[in-house]
Amino acid sequence: MSYPFSISARDMEEHLVQEDKTPVLRFITCGSVDDGKSTLIGRLLCDADLVFEDQLADLRRIGIRGGNGEEIDFSLLLDGLEAEREQGITIDVAYRYFSTSKRKFIVADTPGHHEYTRNMVTGASTADLAIILVDSRQGILQQTRRHSYLASLLGIRHVVLAVNKIDLVDFSEPVFDAIVAEYVSFSAKLGFASITAIPMSARFGDNVVLKSGQLPWYQGPALLEYLETVELDPADKQRASRFPVQLVMRPNPDFRGYAGRIASGKIAVGDPVVVSKSGRRSSVRAIIAPDGNQISAAEGEPVTLVLADELDVSRGDMLVDPASRPFVADQFQAHLIWFDTNPMLPGRSYLLRTETDSVGATVTALKHQLNVDSFVREPAKSLQMNEVGVCNIMTQRPIVFDAYEENRSTGNFIIVDRVSSATVGAGMIDFPLRRADNVHWQALDVDKAARTALKNQKSAVLWFTGLSGSGKSTIANALEALLHTCGKHTYLLDGDNIRHGLNRDLGFTAADRVENIRRVAEVARLMADAGLIVICSFISPFREERRMARELLEEGEFIEIFVDTPLEECARRDPKGLYKKAFAGNIANFTGVSSPYEAPEDPELHLKTVGQEPATLALQIEEFLRRGMEEKQRLA
């Protein structure tokens, strides 16, 4: 890459102004492994004279194919991870910025391996266009279909079908035509606005930057020419203004500003705005940018807005155009892409994060899974890694959003595991569930405090957890009898009894077990609200579901009791003959044998049952409750 030795200050200023006005195209490269994605972008940068001499020298030093000193391995410009260079594959998403006189570009080179689908989703989430590579020798593969479907799902509407390695099939027009016909046929239902097919050889540069003389039958543009001229959304298409508040600025009592990045549209001084959650109205008094005050700001600009009125606005709120307001709801349908090796289970509690908000959320229903290879809807009870499903999601409080197809910035979210803090899924919101508009909390005159006062007790949920045969039900039954003699109002929810009625429709898969505990936790919450001491005896093998039950209740109201009995002792007791069947393989998903049990890490009570009588252990729990009640009365 070279530049003139001298340039006037005026020319430089004009150049920078023009550069700032140059439109930006974000695109990704994707496809199957070894289709040549990294090589294509490396060749594009080199042939367009967009690589520095020292980078080329480095490539010549470490990237000579076969060590013969004749051919540069252009893929190494993007495959920066040591593991990628060793394996010859792309693992991470490699971003590169470059520009020509006509356009600026941000390209994401995404992995081709199936297990790195999440990385491909990351790269596609902000892209305007996808270059989908196909090896001329292999044609359309499963990953071609998968990546095309995901590109469509993520809102990409323009596709370049790069039929690569055309030199290895003797620059054959029939081979090219057959691949294009097959791709156009299967992608017809994906809703792409345009599909442009280009035959090329990334290795030798045919049709990458310049038209190739080896392909006289091809009359279309070379890749760079197409990227420079492709028309995306019309310039006059104006989306509604959206300003998610990321930070409230209060450097002194006289100043209140709201910092963030404009997600869509434009905002100008004097424009009316609405706080999306509260509905409070104001107008923009000032717009403060990094370089000072300005009259207006557009999509993508980081600014601080100062309003004409003092309003209650916090992180997670969104300032919007009053004439085009987003949805505010706690229930919605979404397409969900699952990333984690542990499956997504409806009923399990996760964290849902938007651009500025974070809230507890549960998948209330998995309506169907989408087969990304055949595009067929299939029934499913869970989502495995890299699978896509259509779900109903409920959040603990309302969030602000648009439909993803209308606004990608405000219609997306990620799902985070509460324990590991790992991002386990990504979603695109379809629409709010209308039933959320019809269901509201009804104010009641008699509350929990009044009910517990009448019973002269503190409501609580005593959650017994442990292996089958550990003694949970026996101890729980003894405890209820003891509390009853003390005049306490109780109710015992037992795992087996519940499955005869409320949960008779559920089996013992991981998904059904999550739903089993979710229902029980909701019933226990209602009973605690009635002022009862609720005794729950359930294996409840997963920590996440016990955490979910705890979070439904008030602080200190959930008491986890770990009935700790070794597996060998439980199997020796085997009161129902279940262990014998499980060890023989006649019972699937049996906790402790063919399904895991996640022991509590910090329970309120840890009962070791070996050598202890159930009545003695019940007395320990009753004493724990009595001490807690006395402490509460003392503090009151």
UniProtKB/TrEMBL annotation:
EC number per UniProt: 2.7.7.4, 2.7.1.25
GO function terms (MF aspect): sulfate adenylyltransferase (ATP) activity
CDD domains reported in the protein's UniProt record: APSK, CysN_ATPS, CysN_NodQ_II, CysN_NoDQ_III
Gene3D superfamilies: P-loop containing nucleotide triphosphate hydrolases, Translation factors
UniProt key word GTP-binding: yes
Claim: Kinase is one of the keywords in the record: yes
Catalytic activity: sulfate + ATP + H(+) = adenosine 5'-phosphosulfate + diphosphate; adenosine 5'-phosphosulfate + ATP = 3'-phosphoadenylyl sulfate + ADP + H(+)
Keyword terms, alphabetized: ATP-binding, GTP-binding, Kinase, Multifunctional enzyme, Nucleotide-binding, Nucleotidyltransferase, Phosphoprotein, Transferase
Pfam families reported for this sequence: APS_kinase (PF01583), GTP-eEF1A_C (PF22594), GTP_EFTU (PF00009)
Associated pathway: Sulfur metabolism; hydrogen sulfide biosynthesis; sulfite from sulfate: step 1/3; Sulfur metabolism; hydrogen sulfide biosynthesis; sulfite from sulfate: step 2/3
EC main group: transferase
Region forming the signal peptide: none
Residues that coordinate or bind GTP: 31-38, 109-113, 164-167
InterPro entries linked to this entry: APS, APS_kinase_dom, CysN_GTP-bd, CysN_II, CysN_NoDQ_III, G_TR_CS, GTP-eEF1A_C, P-loop_NTPase
Domain Tr-type G, first and last residues per copy: 22-235
Sites where the protein binds ATP: G466, L467, S468, G469, S470, G471, K472, S473
Transmembrane segments: none
Primary role: APS kinase catalyzes the synthesis of activated sulfate. Catalyzes the synthesis of activated sulfate.
Entries under HAMAP family matching the protein: Adenylyl_sulf_kinase, Sulf_adenylyltr_sub1
Oligomer and partners: Sulfate-activating enzymes, NodP and NodQ, may be physically associated. Heterodimer composed of CysD, the smaller subunit, and CysN.
Family: In the N-terminal section; belongs to the TRAFAC class translation factor GTPase superfamily. Classic translation factor GTPase family. CysN/NodQ subfamily.
Name by which UniProt lists this protein: Multifunctional fusion protein
